[in-house]
Structure formats: C-alpha cells, structure tokens
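TASK: fixed-backbone design
INPUT:
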C-alpha cells in the first residue's frame, strides 16, 4: 500500500492474526472494516523519519545501560538505515495490516535483521513512541515556520522602508479616520508577525520534552536513562510524569492556536490587499503571477491568493477546535482518541508552510499607487482631529473644539471640499481666532509628521521602527 487511500478488501489476507504485534490473546482476526477504521498508517507514515530517529536513540540508550547487546544495536542501526532509504525512495511497502507507522517499521526491521528487531521495543510502548514522534515532527515544523515568518517579516519591513512617507487614509469602522503612512501600516503587520514568532518559539519550549521512558503509562522496570535519550534527540528535558507524557497533547493544541493566529493576521492583511486592489480603492497592484482571470469576464484580475489565505484561515481555526474537542473528555492516560491528533496537526503545518512560502514573495511584488492613496486621504476630512488639536493648543477645551470642527466639517461637506479647501474667513466663522498657519495642520503631511512619538505614524518614526526591526531580524536570523 503506497497511496494515501485505504487499500481494498482484496489485500485483507496480509498478515495472519498470529503474527500481529498484539494478537496473542485474540481468537479471531479483526474485522476488515475495523482494521481499516483503526489503522493510521495512511497518514502517520509521514512520521517515519522521526520514528526511526526516536528508535535509534532508544536503542543506543538500551545498549548503553546494558539491556541490549552491542551487536543487536549494530543490527538495528544497519536495518534502520536501509528502512530510511526505502522510505525516502518510496520503495517501503506500507501495510494496513500493520496498523500504523510504528508497527510497519518494526516489522520491516525484524524482516531485515531478525531478533535484534524484536528486541527494539524493550522498555517502550507505542504510546510514548508516538508522543515522541509527534514532538519531533512538530519541533521541526516550528523551526521551518519560524524561518518562513522571518522572511515574511523582512518583506514587510522592506515595504515599509520603501514607502515610509506614502500617505494613505487610516480607517476606523472602514471610514476614513486620520491620515497614516503606508510604512506605518505595514509595520503594524510586522509587529503581529513578530509576536506570532515569539509565540511559536515559546510553544517550542514545551514541545521539546521527551516522553520516551513513560512506556505505556506507568514507566518501565528496565534501568533506562531518559536523559541520555533526551540529549541524543535534542530535547531540552524529559516529561516529568509518565501518565501526562503519553496522554496530553496540549503542546499540539498550543501550536495550532499559534498557527491560527498567524493565519488570522494574514487573513486580515489579505482582506486589506483585496480591498486595496479593487478598482474602487486602486491603492495597490498585485503582480499578475499571483492573480487569476475570469473564464467569462475578460476584464477581471482576481486576487485569488489573498482570498485563499483568508479562506484557509477557517480551516486552521477548525483544526484548533478539533484538537481541543479531541482532548476534553479523555481520562488519563493514553486513549486511541489521540490517533486523531495527526491529520489536523499535519494539515495545520502544511497550510501554514504553503501560505507563508507564497506570501512573502507576493508582498515583494506589491506595487503602491501613492497618488491614489493620497487622494483618498484628502477626501475624508482626515485632518479634522488635527484642527481640533490646533484649537486645544490655543486654549479651547477639547469637547468644544470637537464641536466647532464638526460644524466646519459639515460646512465643507455641503460645499463639496475638504477642510483645507475652506477659506480662512469661513474657517473663522467656526474658529474665530484661527490664523493662516491653520492650513499647515490641515495638510496630510503636517498631520502625519506631527505624530512623531514612538509608535506614531510619522515617517521619521516609521524609519526608526524599520531600523529596530532590521536589528531584531539580524539577531533572530
Ligand atoms: N497509532 C497510534 C496513535 O497514533 C499509536 C499508539 C497506539 N497505542 C495503542 N496502545 N494502541 O496514537
């Protein structure tokens, strides 16, 4: 069986009941449908390389404490190298009769090296074995994802840097609120992606603990050396309680929650790219290679990539709920329910890796229409707050200033002009002692430049934020 599909009933004959790893006490073969229902090899064969790694570390430890002979260890190493090669070149024959990745590999090992293969499982259970495999898989996935997030963060910083003083409307309630710089807007997403990275790295600390040694649930009577195995596999330490080690999957839930946040942030950015790219906004262009056309409407250029990212976010959020629900009613210790952790987890990792790999490159191709952005910012009375602040600085209480400016906005709207389009005389009917310098605060550039504190939208601040980010990225690299 080499495909992801369950094999047909014709293959049922496979392994006789007496040869199954756990069939000693069974008097009849497992029902064919039950066999397929309970098997996980269709999807957990993906853990093969980690399973081999874990087994090699376990065997080396058994030999070091004298439970396994040196020649057995050598046989196991030789057999595992061959199995690794078979898995990698696709010639390994996976069998549903052998249930899962662990039993498939163990059976092949025994075929290849005889008794040594049968000794490998000493002091171990599939329960601590699978928990170890998943942690190794997830640790590797986190490292890849963090690297991809680094690339995304770099792309955001580059965009911010290139457009530090491009002015666009900032929105609240999707209504023009105050002018902001495009660089500032991009750096907001940089902050999100940075927290996402921190979250995953923090989760990694709890992923990176060794379950092996917990055996089925209670530990083992062999004189095992768990620290030895932990070191060999690059774990920071061991899981301190055997019941907990084999049963909880909180680390996978935590990861998926971090992944859901990554997707949620990308979904928000995608929503903006989609809006900005629509002709009504016309703020940006996405490169053609990231868009598709319509089979019926020749004029269309659709932002499929951001739309799919927005859509795939639902899928990852769903996996988070699936894993939480999987865990919630399980009594200690291991239950077969946990076999259901893999597909959501694998799909979460794949979705994230695919999304991030394409996203950074798409961002690098964003073309910004600075004139359209400025035009839009100039249309929505975006500097009304600046006028109110001008009045406050001249001694008027803020609430009164708010009221006066609101009347000025109504007047400007009635005349079909922006605030800066009103004459000084008209402005004076609302703000009696306004001087000609009032026009300074009404300009978009004056407005953004004045927000020059740390975290503000001023181009000078964006440049500093870009510099801080570049330092951070250099440190993390
Ligand atoms: N395929 C199983 C899983 O993914 C491996 C552990 C099975 N343990 C057991 N006692 N049936 O969880």
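OUTPUT:
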């Amino acid at each position: 069986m080499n495909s992801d599909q369950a094999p047909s009933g014709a293959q049922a004959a496979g392994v006789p009941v007496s040869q199954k790893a756990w069939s000693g006490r069974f008097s009849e073969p497992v029902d064919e449908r039950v066999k397929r229902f309970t098997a996980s090899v269709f999807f957990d064969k993906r853990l093969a390389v980690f399973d081999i790694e874990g087994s090699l570390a376990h065997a080396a430890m058994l030999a070091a404490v004298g439970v396994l002979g040196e020649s057995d260890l050598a046989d196991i190493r030789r057999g595992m190298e061959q199995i690794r090669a078979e898995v990698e070149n696709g010639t390994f024959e996976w069998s549903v009769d052998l249930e899962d990745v662990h039993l498939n590999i163990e059976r092949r090992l025994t075929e290849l090296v005889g008794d040594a293969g049968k000794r490998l499982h000493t002091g171990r259970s599939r329960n601590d074995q699978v928990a170890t495999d998943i942690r190794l898989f997830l640790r590797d996935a986190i490292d890849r994802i963090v690297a991809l997030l680094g690339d995304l963060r770099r792309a955001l910083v580059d965009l911010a840097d290139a457009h530090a003083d491009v002015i666009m409307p900032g929105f609240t309630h999707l209504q023009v609120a105050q002018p902001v710089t495009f660089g500032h807007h991009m750096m907001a997403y940089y902050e999100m992606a940075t927290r996402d990275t921190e979250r995953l790295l923090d989760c990694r600390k709890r992923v990176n603990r060794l379950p092996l040694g917990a055996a089925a649930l209670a530990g083992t009577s062999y004189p095992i050396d768990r620290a030895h195995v932990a070191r060999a596999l690059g774990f920071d330490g061991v899981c301190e309680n055997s019941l907990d080690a084999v049963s909880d999957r909180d680390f996978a839930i935590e990861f998926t929650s971090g992944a859901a946040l990554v997707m949620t942030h990308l979904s928000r950015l995608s929503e903006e790219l989609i809006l900005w790219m629509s002709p009504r906004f016309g703020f940006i262009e996405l490169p053609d290679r990231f868009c598709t056309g319509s089979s019926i409407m020749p004029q269309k250029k659709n932002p499929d990539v951001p739309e799919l990212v927005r859509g795939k976010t639902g899928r990852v959020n769903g996996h988070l709920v699936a894993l939480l629900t999987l865990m919630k009613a399980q009594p200690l210790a291991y239950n077969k329910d946990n076999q259901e952790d893999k597909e959501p987890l694998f799909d979460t990792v794949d979705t994230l890796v695919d999304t991030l790999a394409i996203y950074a490159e798409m961002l690098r191709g964003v073309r910004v229409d600075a004139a359209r952005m400025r035009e839009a910012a100039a249309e929505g009375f975006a500097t009304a707050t600046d006028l109110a602040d001008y009045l406050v600085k001249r001694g008027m209480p803020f609430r009164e200033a708010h009221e006066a400016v609101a009347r000025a906005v109504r007047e400007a709207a009635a005349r079909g002009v922006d605030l800066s389009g009103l004459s000084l005389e008209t402005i004076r009917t609302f703000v009696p002692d306004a001087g000609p310098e009032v026009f300074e605060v009404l300009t978009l550039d004056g407005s953004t430049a004045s927000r020059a504190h740390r975290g503000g939208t001023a181009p000078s601040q964006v440049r500093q934020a870009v510099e801080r980010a570049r330092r951070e990225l250099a440190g993390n690299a």
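COMMENT: Residues 40, 44, 100, 126-127, 130, 336, 338-339 surround arginine (CB under 6 Å).
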